[in-house]
Write a structure and sequence with these properties.
Distance between the termini: 96 Å
Strand order of the largest sheet: 5-2-1-9-20
Structural class: alpha/beta
Helix content: 25-40%
Number of helices: 14
Length: 461
């Protein structure tokens, strides 16, 4: 019997930690915990298998982070769950070496994660977590999943985010011609009859969907439109010093700012985490350029309208969809009639329903969000003594690096060290050339008091 088989797992209860949800971030924690002999861990997910944004695994789409941002390498390059070890097992090291690409195809990152998820002995799929309770007497979490109750000292939430749909599109929530980019590949075939398609959203997903439609609907007369609220089709910040805002150094700085400053800062940093890559923008331009060789640039039925917000969306009286739009800078309003819409409008964190039994034991902030310390532990009422940690639910406390895969392994190591109560993974003290916080003001020099003899001498003069 190995220490990782199911029977052994039952004998090791209570677990030191249970992870709820198996996305890339909890998968990173599972990979690091697999080598931590002193930490018993179990990870549960209701899906039948690991899938990472399946709706956006379009041909040619690449990651926006280097391959070193895998599950473990930036913390433990010797870990067997690294991407390079995946390549070795798949006999793809030499092809990858000759490809000379730092960024992976999205499909390969998904395959890598599935390779790890279905081999890690501490990960279980088809195990939806339905409820989490706190046993105050035993000081343990009771995690109910797939007809069983597991006990754990700590809980790590990695339930991910859900597609965000703008309020303007609420009347079209169930309309078959309105897709979110999360369902794009599955729903792309249903767009075949559409002769006017509108993409909404300026980020990487919006750019990739627009480019994919350009490629698949070339020459068939379909009008393609791209609406973005941003003032311009601006590229993602990708300068070397600019990227230092995705370091643990910046996370520590951001966490120390007042809450109102943090809330104002995140939306102002949209080009760090909500823009499209310069490469994808260039591919769109190149594609349009080649399609119009020998013809006027407006020969193709293509519209790109930045600075445009959709204020209302509804089904048209004669069929199709009507989008009421407003141009931000001019204030001009116009109506767009279209057959189908793809919403590339991002994702939002949601509180899992399984937490409802302990919701009153969590110390929510004024806006109903988690209060999260630097170790990613959620503040709770004094009677809940078990550690409750979150992954990718702390954008408001830890900044734009929260959803970034490049910080995933580091955050997992921080949590694992905290759960273990000791340093299982040494982490660097300094990770950026940039100093984000100004130096403290100098302490005023103290004026020395005159000695008693000096005072008398001065008085006698």
């Amino acid at each position: 019997m190995t220490p990782h088989d199911d029977t052994a797992g039952q004998q090791r209860e209570p677990y030191d930690l249970i992870g709820v949800g198996i996305g890339p971030f909890n998968l990173s924690l599972a990979a690091l915990a697999d080598r931590a002999e002193t930490v018993g861990a179990l990870f549960l997910d209701g899906k039948p298998e690991f899938r990472w944004h399946p709706g956006m695994l379009v041909d040619g789409a690449r990651m926006q982070v280097p391959f070193l941002a895998d599950l473990v390498t930036l913390v433990d390059p010797t870990n067997p769950w690294s991407f390079l070890n995946y390549l070795r097992e798949k006999q793809r090291l030499f092809p990858f070496y000759f490809s000379e690409r730092f960024q992976l195809p999205r499909r390969e990152y998904d395959d890598y994660c599935r390779w790890a998820a279905h081999r890690l002995p501490n990960c279980r799929f088809d195990s939806p977590v339905t409820a989490v309770h706190w046993d105050a007497e035993e000081r343990l979490y009771l995690v109910r999943a797939a007809g069983r109750a597991h006990r754990a000292r700590n809980l790590v939430l990695g339930t991910g985010t859900e597609p965000a749909r703008p309020e303007a599109f609420a009347p079209l929530r169930r309309h078959p011609a309105v897709l979110h980019s999360a369902d794009y590949l599955a729903g792309r075939g249903g767009l075949a009859a559409a002769r006017d398609i509108t993409v909404v959203g300026s980020g990487q997903s919006g750019a990739e969907v627009f480019l994919d439609l350009l490629r698949h609907r070339a020459g068939d007369g379909t009008r393609l439109r791209w609406l973005t609220r941003t003032r311009a089709i601006a590229p993602m910040e990708y300068s070397k010093l600019g990227l230092e805002q995705f370091t643990p150094d910046y996370t520590r700085y951001f966490h120390g700012l007042p809450a109102d400053v943090r809330d104002a800062l995140v939306p102002a940093q949209w080009q760090l985490h909500k823009a499209a890559s310069a490469e994808t923008i260039a591919e769109i331009h190149d594609h349009l350029y080649e399609r119009t060789i020998g013809r006027p640039i407006d020969a193709e039925p293509v519209e790109i309208l930045p600075g445009t917000a959709v204020s209302e969306a509804a089904q048209g009286p004669g069929g199709g969809l009507e989008l009421h739009c407003r141009h931000g800078e001019s204030g001009r309003r116009h109506l767009v009639r279209t057959d189908a819409v793809v919403l590339a409008t991002g994702y939002r964190a949601v509180r899992p329903a399984a937490l409802d039994p302990i919701a009153d034991l969590i110390d929510w902030d004024e806006r109903g969000r988690y209060r999260v310390d630097l170790d990613h532990r959620v503040a709770t009422r004094p009677e809940l003594t078990g550690g409750l940690y979150v992954q990718n639910a702390e954008l408001h406390t830890h900044g734009v690096g929260t959803p970034d895969l490049g910080l995933g392994a580091h955050r997992a190591a921080v949590i694992l060290n905290a759960v273990a109560g000791k340093t299982l993974h040494p982490l660097p003290d300094r990770t950026a050339w940039t100093t984000f916080e100004p130096p403290a003001p100098p302490v005023p020099a103290l004026i020395p008091l005159p000695q008693e003899g000096t005072e008398r001498a001065a008085a006698s003069r």
